[in-house]
Design a protein that fits this description.
The complex is a heterodimer.
Chain A (H helix, E strand, L loop, with lengths): L3 E4 L2 E4 L4 E8 L5 E7 L6 E7 L2 E5 L6 E7 L2 E7 L7 E8 L8 E2 L3 E5 L1
Parallel strand pairs in A: 2-11
Antiparallel strand pairs in A: 1-3, 3-8, 4-5, 4-9, 5-6, 7-8, 9-10, 9-11
Chain B lengths: L3 E3 L4 E4 L4 E7 L6 E7 L5 E6 L5 E3 L2 E6 L4 E6 L8 E11 L2 E6 L3 E6 L1
Parallel strand pairs in B: 2-11
Antiparallel strand pairs in B: 1-3, 3-8, 4-5, 4-9, 6-7, 7-8, 9-10, 9-11
Classes of the chains: A mainly beta, B mainly beta.
Chain lengths: 113, 112
């Protein structure tokens, strides 16, 4: 019943592959986020987009490249990942980027081989 | 001191029990507070916001104590379906941004 959708649900990729994760929200929210979550750890913020502009990059390696084509869509482009990048990647959205509640998508479970 | 600290548990309780979780935060300027629940291998889902006056939603009650910088969540009449990890979330503001700071979560297991 989430209104934030993510594709694919699962992704296995090699270290030389290029792939993209996609996120879409239909709530009219103006802020969107990427998080990374490892097992038994809380989500870690990667990127924040506010009004389609990148406003926060939490020192994420350049092998992760976010893109916000419009206010409803958020992509995360992946290239030359490492096995330690294997994790659950969560997208979230909120009505604005000022600390109001965020709503998460179901995540993409990524395995890098 | 970590920004947001929670007892990791696990809390193992029988059905019908009352269980309370506490969470402390280090930044006295924090302004918004939430509890999320996360089921195994699922996304975090907003459970409730936490207000200074306290708030209740059915069997769940959240309290905020700004002076002591802690947040609590009380679950009454526990159900099997309450089994999950409960994440305390604090929002710190910097400029126009408000970033969510997650605690490590408290695992609850409700047994029949």
């Amino acid at each position: 019943d989430t209104e934030v959708t993510q594709t694919p649900k699962h992704l296995v990729m090699g270290m030389t592959n290029k792939k993209s994760l996609k996120c879409e929200q239909h709530m009219g929210h103006r802020a969107m986020y990427w998080y990374k979550q490892k097992a038994k750890k809380p989500p870690e913020l990667m990127f924040v987009y506010s009004y389609e502009k990148l406003s926060i990059n939490e020192s994420v390696p350049s092998r992760f490249s976010p893109e916000c084509p419009n206010s409803s869509l958020l992509n995360l482009h992946l290239h030359a990942l490492q096995p330690e990048d294997s994790a659950l990647y969560l997208c979230a959205s909120s009505s604005q980027a000022s600390g109001v509640e965020q709503y998460f998508g179901p995540g993409t479970r990524l395995t890098v081989t | 001191r970590k920004e947001v600290e929670q007892d990791p548990g696990p809390f193992n309780v029988p059905e019908g029990a009352t269980v309370a979780f506490n969470c402390t935060y280090s930044n006295s300027a924090s302004q918004s507070f939430f509890w999320y629940r996360q089921d195994c291998r699922k996304e975090p889902k907003l459970l409730m916001s936490v207000y200074s006056s306290g708030n209740e939603d059915g069997r769940f009650t959240a309290q905020l104590n700004r002076a002591s910088q802690y947040i609590s969540l009380l679950i009454r009449d526990s159900k099997l379906s309450d089994s999950a990890t409960y994440l305390c979330v604090v929002v710190n503001y910097g400029g126009s941004q408000g970033n969510l700071i997650f605690g490590k979560g408290t695992k609850l297991s409700v047994k029949p």
